[in-house]
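hey
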């Protein structure tokens, strides 16, 4: 079993109540876990946290920076942080990219949005579904 990864010493706990953050996820991965009590992304075992982003504009930028070559369909999870039991911290100086240090309760996902991409795989927009 891997050693648990903990937040950095300079991490800042977010104020969970009333805070919404977003997580970009391949559609097939979300659909495989959406009916379970909790969700864990690919790479969680190695990284120890779930990557999130606080703004839609940054979600698009993150998609283009890290997933443009990934041909899978993606969804965007809108997460109500007050419903997440695990610690949620900022480890970036701009406090835009929260990390959830534990599983995400599926019930904390308030909305699931479709993500529009072009033929080259660029992330273009998030659909309000």
């Amino acid at each position: 079993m891997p050693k648990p990864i903990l937040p950095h010493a300079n991490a800042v706990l977010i104020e969970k109540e009333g805070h919404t953050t977003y997580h970009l996820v391949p559609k097939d991965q979300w659909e495989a876990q959406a009916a379970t009590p909790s969700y864990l992304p690919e790479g969680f075992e190695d990284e120890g946290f779930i990557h999130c982003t606080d703004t839609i504009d940054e979600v698009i930028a993150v998609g283009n920076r890290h997933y443009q070559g990934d041909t899978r369909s993606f969804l965007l999870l809108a997460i109500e942080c007050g419903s997440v039991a695990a610690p949620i911290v900022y480890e970036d100086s701009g406090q835009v990219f929260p990390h959830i240090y534990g599983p995400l309760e599926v019930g904390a996902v308030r909305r699931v949005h479709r993500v529009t991409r072009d033929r080259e795989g660029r992330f273009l927009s998030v659909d309000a579904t």
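The mean pLDDT is 92. The first helix runs from residue 27 to 33.
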